[in-house]
Structures are given as C-alpha cells and as structure tokens.
Amino acid sequence: VDCLGSYISLLSKISEDKKLREFLDRNAKQPCSDSSLNKISTCNSTQLSDTKEVDITPEEIRSRLQKVVAKAQEKKSNPFEKRVDKQSKARHPSHHSPELPNWLNMRPSMSLDFVVDRASAPTPFAAVLGAVPIGSQENILLEDLLYCLEGVEGEYIVPNPLQGPYEPRTFTISPCVAPNTSKGRKFPIPLLNHVTTDAGGEQYHYNPHWPEHPVVSADQSLRELAIQILPLASHYSMVVRFMEEKSGFHHGQVNHALAAAMGCLVKDYLVLVAQLEMLLDQGGFNLHEMWFYVQPTLHCMSILANIASTINKAEAKGGQVLSLLHEQTSSYMGDTKGQELCLYLTQAASVPYMEILEKWIYKGAICDPYQEFLVEDNEMIQKEDLPLDYSADYWEKRYTIRRERIPVFLERVADVILRTGKYLNVIRQCGKNIKTPQDEDIVYTIKERQYFESIEKAYLFASKTLLQLLMEENDLMRRLKSVKHYFLLDQGDFIMQFMDSCEEELSKNIGDIMPTRLESLLELALRTSAANSDPYKDDMRTELLPYDLTFQMSKILSIETQEEKEYRLPLDHLNLVGLESVWISNKVGKSFHLKNAKMYVPAFALRQRMLNCIQNLEYYMMVEVIEPNWLAFLSKINNVNNVDEVLVCHSDFLDTCLKDCMLTNPDLLRIVNSLMSACEQFCQFMQSPDSPPTNTSINECSGGSFKQRINKFDDEFTSVLVTLLDNISSLGRENNSEKLVNVLYR
Predict the structure, then answer these.
(1) pTM for the full model?
(2) Which of 67, 592, 710, 715 has its CA 20 to 30 A from that of 95?
C-alpha cells in the first residue's frame, strides 16, 4: 500500500504519453525474449529529458496485482461495502464493526485533552507562583489559563490524574508564596492543601507544614479568579474525551452525530480562546475581563459536559441517547439559551435515527448497521424458503419492537411505526412496486405533533395501499365468503356429501386413516355439490389434528392465560378416531319386523329427542348467531379505511360468534361435550348389531336388557340436557342475552 502512490503516478504518466501507449499496445502480447524489451521507458511527450527505467514486465505486474487482490479478499470486508446479500445486516444482529487501533493510548499527544499519566502523581510545577513579582503574576495566570482552556498544562496550573474515565478533570495551582529554602526544606512545598468539589471547582486549606517566614507573598484574589475560571477547562476536558471516545464505530451513528455536533461547538469555543489570547497580546487584559467574557461560554460548556457525563455513565446508544437528550431539553424550560443548545444537540444527534425511520416508514427497509433502531428484522430465512401455507406468525415474529431502543418522544407511535413498515413489506412480498408520495423529512422538535403527523400520513398510505391490494387484487371478500361455505356450514349439501362419503374412513383410528383418500373424497364432494360454483374451492385441504375437539377449544380459550402451558404437551396417549359427531343412521330400523320394531319404540323416541336437541342447537348457532353477525360484519367491512379496521372487524366477528355459540364458557363447553358424548354412545349402541335384532339378541345385550339400557341412556341424556338448560338460563340472566334465552324455548 505504501508504494501505491508511485505506481498510480507511473500509470498516469503512461496514459498521458501517446507514443508510449502505442508502443505498449504493439508489444503487450508478444513474448519478451530480449532483455532490452524488458525496460519500459516513461517520458513526457513534450519533455524527454526526464527518463525512468523500470525492470519489470507486464506479466510480473499482473501477477503481483493478483496476489494483492487475493490477500485483500481474505481480509474482513468493509462495513460500508455493498454486500451480495442485502438482508445480511438485518438477519445478523451481531454486526462486527472494524477494529481500529487505539491511537489515543498509543500516541497520547494526538488527543485534544490533557496528556497526564493517570497512575502518576500530579505534574510538579515549573516554578512557584509566589516567587514571581506581584505585578507579573496576573499575566502569568492569564497565559496558563489560556493554555488550560485548550487542553494544555501550564507552568503554574497543572491538571491532576483522572479518578475515572468519566470523572471531571481537576487542577492544582502553584502556591502563592515561596518558602524560605534556607532551612533545608525541599522545593516546592504547597501552601494550600487541594480539595476538589463536585462541580469540578476547587477548595484549598492552609498547609500546616509551610514555613513560618515566606520570602514573597501574592494577591490571593488573583488565585480565586483563576479558580472560578478553571471549571471551564474541566468541562472542555470532559467534552473532548466524549468526542474522541464516541467517534468509534461500535458506539453507533447517534453518538457519532452527537460527537460531531459537539465538535462544531468546540470549534466556536476555541475561537473564543483565540480571541482572548489576542486581547492578552494587545495588552491591558486582566483576569476580571477574562471572567466577564467566559461566563456565557462556561454555562454552555457545563451543559455539554453534563450531557457527556450522563451518556457515558449510562453507556447509552441509539434511542437511549435520544431519550436522555430529550429529557435534558425538557429540563431547561426556564432557560431559553440552555434549551436552544440542548435542542440543537438533540436535532443533530437524531438525524441518523430519523433517516432510518424514514426509510422504514417510506420504503419498508431497515438500514441499521449498529442495532439502534426500535424495529428489528429477525428474518433468518427468506420467504421463498417457507412452505406455501405458512401462517401470519411469520410476519409477527420477523419484525419486532425493541422497547429499550425506543426514544421517549416516539413511545406513543412505536406500534404505528412497526405496522407501517410491515405493511410495506407485505406489499413488496406480493411482488408489487411501492410508489410512495413525496417523502417528508422527519425532524425532532419539542412539539411532538409535527413528526407524529408525518408518521400518521405514512401509515395511512401503507395501510390503504395494502387494503386495496387485499380487497381488489386478492379479492378478500369473496375468499371470506368461500371460507364461510365450509367452516360455518353455509353449504349444507357439501357437508352432507362429504360426511357420508368419509364416514367409513373417518371411523378408523387416526393412525390408520389415509390422507390421500380423504383428499380424493373432499374433491369429489366439492365437484358434486353446490360448492362447485365456488371459484376458490381448490384451496380446500384436509388436515388430521393430534387432539380432539374439546382439547382444541380448550387450547383456544387458554391463549394468553396461565393454563396455556398445559395445552402444549404432546398427546400421544389419546386413542383418537377420525370422526366425532352425532351422525345417526336409522337405515337399520327401517328393515325391522313389526314385532321387533315395537321394542325399538323407546329407542326411536330417545333418538328423536337427541336429534331434535342437536338440530335446534345447530339452528340456533347457524340462524340466530352466525348469519346475523355475518351480515353485520359485511356492513362494517364495506366502510373500512385501512387494514387495521379490517382486522378489528374480523376479530370482533369471530369473538362474537364464539361467545354467542357458548364456546367461550368452559362450563358450557364441557356440558355440551357431555351431551354430544351421550348421543354418540347411544348411536354406537344402536349400530352395534350386525343384523336386524331378534328377541335373543335384544335380551342378551350387555349390561342388562335392551329396554333397561335405553332407559339408562334416556336418564343420562335428560340429566345432561337439564344441566345445560340451567346453565344457559343463568348465563342469559347475567349477560342479558336474548339469544341465549331463545335456546331454552327451542
């Protein structure tokens, strides 16, 4: 790399020399056997006096370049280079920043701060201030103060080693009087013991070991003025340490921007120091005037130092830094200049964060190399690698909010920001180009309403665009109507045909059922029923669940409750069959002899009661619950303005249907399940004989006579039915539900 400049200069001269380029073009591809051809002469076309010879062939140059390129490829890539995989930064949160040498430790003189060895004692004074004539002490203090204000130690004012990396800088001033060295005491001995205050200032107490007869005395008022000015140097030290540390890659873009903004203010501060130095050179400048000029700057630098110390101690980054700056800005409500200064710093520091925010809400893209933004992309695999029927859980888990990264002033709209970019990503995943309106720059202000409006506009655009995509291009309403045909029993003939054709297969144990046969029977039922006119009938699939209906409903009701973990356990111990229902066949009874048929009268009567109960329960759910709620759902969804309202309408429809169908009450659900179980057991008992029963087969039924078993089934069914009606009655009175009361009459 060190030789690269000379090599580029050589190439530049070659490109400028037309004759040389023509010579190289003629001889580049010819093998060079003669040693004289191995010398390339580079000369200026207008001046041939300066000629350089390089004993190297083009093949050697090419070989060396290939080696350099190969070595460069082995090194870590620059974080600002464009990677082949554009999503890699979002998928891998552990972004590796370049590791740069710690120049400030290796070469301390490069720092703008004082160069002091922390492990050593304070730097000894070059001389004692008390030994200087009183008339010259003020000018000496002025010169040393100007040095300290720029981060350079003076002869009579020296910085102390830091007590910690983020602690304020303290100083020690040379004594105001000189000791009588004739008594053999070592020089110098401080007159005052130094004590540091919390504000970075200093206090002093007389040293009892000072000699009794000093040689020269000094004006203590000059010393006190210097002590009042020194906190400015302490603030400068804190600020430049913050700037130098936070400029590192791993501290993030927000800290980078804040350090740069502080750097601009430090430049103005150094201009002030230069002006003070000019006044000193002109003569007639004193400490009182200096104190007068630095007071406004002292206030500003104290604010900068306080911000730097707060961020350093909190080890803040990204949104946390902006939250601290926002709190500082709000705390200076009574101080106009202080608030303006904090506002300037917050606006400057928020620029990179707001740029990430703008890309997210306007483009749906996250460009966050240092993990500072409130939205995190957790994509581990591409959408193309997922199965075709992947659920919406993909979108819920891919983009998540990191609460610790949310600035305080964006807390209220964090969820809106998340949904805005997520909607744009859904649109892009559907293969649609996003034509966003004119982007508005989002700038931090104390009045949050300004950028809230920009975020709301971006959200409305993304939501309406996605709504149009769902409603028009993807035909959402017709798809919902198609779903209603099957899951809400809207197509009765399809359900009848499918259940009749699959009854034999579904009566088997779940492990013996062939899914391919079910798919064939489903397609046959779809083609031979009224569902054949459904344009989306081919999207129907069959799936065998590893649990029964009761467990499924209990699992749904337990979501976000303490019982949710109980329904995540494996259910291998269940002996499931493919069909649970009260599907009743009366074909056997039609072939009975009249004498045998009379003995089935109680059974037929009970069967009719059961059938009447199930039919009325189904009628209530279909006609009095689902259909009215479906019409209300259609009325609401025709007036929606964004996707969120669609989701709310759909969720309300499902919740209302579940509640009115008595599926959200665990007690009612268990009772209804017991009622179904009683009907199912009765059906199994009635269908158990292989042929029309005779007197012998009836009397030899297990568990007593046939009539006794029927009476037992009747008692069980009646008991469960009465319990159900009692619970419905009490629930209807508590909720004032007229629909539930109608079940009693039915």
Answers:
(1) 0.65
(2) 67
Q: pLDDT tens for residues 492-528?
A: 788 888 888 888 888 888 888 888 898 999 899 888 8
Q: Give the CA count within 13 Å in the CB-facing half-sphere of 158.
A: 19
DSSP string, 653-676: HHHHHHHHTT-S-HHHHHHHHHHH
Task: Kindly provide the b/e burial profile for residues 695-728, where b requires at least 16 CB atoms within 10 angstroms of the residue's own CB.
Answer: eeebeebeeeebeebbeebbebbeebbebbeebb
Residue 16's CB is within 10 A of a number of other CB atoms, namely: 13
The tokens 């309106």 sit on which residue? 437
* Structure confidence by residue, pLDDT tens digits, 12-46: 888 888 888 888 888 876 544 444 434 433 343 33
Q: From CA 204, how far away is CA 212, in angstroms rounded?
A: 18
d(CA 593, CA 585): 18
Token pair 């479906």 is found at 630
Residue 176 binned pLDDT confidence (cut-offs 50, 70, 90): low
pLDDT of 314 reads: 92
Q: Contact, 146 vs 276, CB < 8 A? A: yes
* 624, amino acid identity: E
Can you tell me the distance from the alpha carbon of 249 to that of 97, in angstroms, rounded to the nearest whole number? 6
Side chain identity, residue 320? Q
Residue 194: both structure tokens together? 């130094």
Query: How many helical (H) and strand (E) elements, i.e. helices and strands, does the chain have?
Result: 27, 8
Judged by average pLDDT, the poorest of 158-172, 250-264, 405-419, 587-601 is 587-601
Share of the chain above pLDDT 90, in %: 26
Domains belonging to the chain, first-starting first, are: 128-175+217-315 (no CATH), 341-474 (no CATH), 475-544 (no CATH), 546-560+574-690+705-745 (1.20.120.1900)
157 strand-pairing partners: 173
- Copy the structure tokens of residue 543: 């799936």
How far is the first Cα of the chain from the last one, in angstroms, to the nearest whole number?
92
The predicted pLDDT at position 342 comes to 95
CA atoms within 13 A on the CB side of 203: 6
Encode pLDDT of 281-295 as tens digits. 998 899 999 999 999
Q: Which residue has the tokens 């130092």?
A: 305
Question: Could you please report the per-residue DSSP string of 479-497?
Answer: HHHHHHHHHT---HHHHHH
**Cβ atoms within 10 A of the Cβ of 737, count?**
15
